[in-house]
Give the backbone structure.
Amino acid sequence: MGEALPSMRDALVEAIPRLRAFALALCHDPSQADDLVQETLVKAWNARDNFDKGTNLKAWLFTILRNTFFSEHRKRRYRLGYRESLDASSQWRHPEQDGHLAMQDFLAALSKLPPDQREALLLVGAEGFSYEEAGAISGCAVGTIKSRVNRARRRLCDLLHITDEDSFGPDAQFDAVLARAASQARRT
């Protein structure tokens, strides 16, 4: 059996590119395909004593991969069906890409502030220093720091078109979609 193991190992390694291509065709997700191939190889290695020498190893591996894929697909479909029975509103989140865009807008607006206001706002708002500590760092009076932070905040609101606290978070369109989805989930 000492000679059979290296040849089995070599055959498994040799099959990886074809297994990956097949897995990718099944699931259309490179990361999931890699996981599927890895699971297939682990199962094949653990069951290597069950493989009949002289039969088609490639067909055996593809069968393991296919069965693993469909088994996981059934589990995922069951879990999804269970989740759909829960309140739909708990599954919805505000789209994350908006956060990235909002951060870009914020950084652009921040760069337009005068340096003394930007420094004061960053020290107090981002770094968490007290007004007294920020004044000591900047070498100016506490009142000056407070004034700079206040002017910086107002200017940022103007640059970002923020009128009130309703300007933050999900917009009306997103809220409407969320409400409709929750309503549909309650009816089913």
